[in-house]
Every structure is written in structure tokens, then in C-alpha cells.
Amino acid sequence: MLTSNDQLLLNRGIKLQLDKDFIEAEKIYLKLLKKYYQNFYINFLLGFLYTNIKKLDTALKFLLKAYQINSLDYNCTYQIGLCYQKLKKIDLAIKYYKFAISIKDTDVISHLNIAKCYKSLNEIYKARKHYEKVLMIDNKNEIGNWKYGELLIKEGELKKGLQYIKNATGFIKFYSDRYSYE
Fold first, then answer.
1. Distance between terminal CA atoms of the chain?
2. Cα separation of 54 and 79, whole Å?
3. Could you give the CA distance from residue 148 to residue 61 in angstroms, rounded to a whole number?
4. What is the pLDDT of residue 42?
5. d(C-alpha 143, C-alpha 134), whole Å
6. CA distances in angstroms from 129 to 32, 38, 106, 112, 166, listed in the order given
7. Residue 167, pLDDT score
8. Which helix (H) or strand (E) holds 51?
9. Mean pLDDT within 171-175
10. pLDDT of amino acid 171
11. What is the pTM of this model?
12. Which of 11, 43, 75, 116 has its CA 20 to 30 A from that of 83?
């Protein structure tokens, strides 16, 4: 358990990270980590910080440490999958996305990312099932509609695929601003 002064320091680090002052936030987290090596949250925050600045191998070091401390945290598990996906270690990405989905089955982003992983491995049936899950959770999800429509068209289901693409109104315009889909 953090002392009240250390909690204030941690809060300052979080604010700095939110303000994208990653260097100062990193200094605070590393200082706290010396004292609280087994603290899940500090390890997670460091991993998340390194993910943001694209130091993915370093991010994984801290995220995997956090995961050892608490393997039931959805955000940590998801971030590990995302790091592996960005590093093109697709089998490991799928493994951690599966863990994340087992914790929070209704999270659209995990389903979208695991579908993309399966698609990259040409495991179309598995990708299709995850796109379908996305649309069961949120039938208006633009990325889910677009990607599922593309998949259907590639599989020869032109009419059905075009309907899903039509449902993705505004997808192209808002894609990068609205989702943290990899």
C-alpha cells in the first residue's frame, strides 16, 4: 500500500502522462517502482506509458510483470495483446486477446483486434466469428460493419457484404479519431 505522499506522487505521474509529458511521468513511476516493485498499478502504468511512446519491448516487460501480479485485469491483458500485435507476434497477441475476452466478453475492441489477427493468419472462419460478435454487441459499430462487409465480399458474398459496408456510414471520415483499433 502506498503512503499518502507516494499516492500524491503517483497521481501527479498519472496527470503528467495524461498531459503527454511522458518523460516526467516515467521519472515518477520509476522512482515509485524502486519502493513498490510488486505494485500492479505502477507496473501497468509504466507499461502503458511505454506503449504510448512505442517502446513496445520495454512496455511488455512492465505489462507482463503487472500481469503476473494480477492476471484478471482486463486493461493489462488487452495492452499485452496490443503490444504483441504491433510487434507482429500474432500468436501471442491472440493468446492475450483471448484472455482479455475471457475477462470482458463484451469489449468490442478486443474482438476487432483478434479478428484482425486471425484474418492476417488467413483464419477467416475465426475472424468472421469475432466480427459477428462485435455486431452482436453493437450492430452499429462502424469498424465491425466495414471489416465484416469486406470479409464477406472477399468470401464471395457480395450483396450481403455491401449491406454491412453501407451500415458503416461515416467509417472512413471518423476512423482514426474515434477508435483505438490497431
1. 35
2. 12
3. 34
4. 98
5. 9
6. 43, 38, 14, 10, 20
7. 85
8. helix 40-52
9. 50
10. 56
11. 0.89
12. 11
